[in-house]
Specification:
Order of helices and strands: HHH
Radius of gyration: 18 Å
Shape: elongated
Number of helices: 3
Largest sheet: none
Distance between the termini: 43 Å
Number of strands: 0
Helix content: 55-70%
Strand content: under 5%
Oligomer: single chain
Length: 109
């Protein structure tokens, strides 16, 4: 029973991370203003948040951390979740790849 609950928790976490990323991408696509345009006074400096991706897309950044933790749990588990561990790990890696691409997207900056 514990294995099933762990697997269900991982699936829910993956689903949450993917849906969070999808909703953020949709929200950015609907925006009417460009994320690259910044207005500043002539003597003000405009700081870029390229060094800290969490500043612009905190939900995606948190989802990446959660997914990395879930993947580590899958890889270190002593059981195979009734044969689902490999597929869950593969899907988690794909989700992480998409989240990282979303975080690196210009519209996230």
């Amino acid at each position: 029973m514990r294995k099933v609950l762990t697997l269900v928790s991982l699936v829910v976490l993956c689903t949450f991370a993917i849906e969070s990323a999808r909703s953020l991408v949709l929200a950015h696509n609907k925006a009417t203003t460009s994320a690259n345009i910044q207005v500043a006074a002539p003597d003000a400096t405009v700081e870029s948040s390229e060094a800290d991706p969490a500043a612009d897309c905190p939900n995606i950044h948190r989802a990446i951390g959660a997914m990395e933790s879930a993947l580590q749990d899958l890889e270190n588990a002593r059981h195979d979740f009734c044969g689902h561990r490999k597929a869950a790990a593969d899907d988690t890696r794909k989700a992480l790849d998409q989240l990282r691409k979303a975080e690196a997207c210009d519209k996230c900056r």
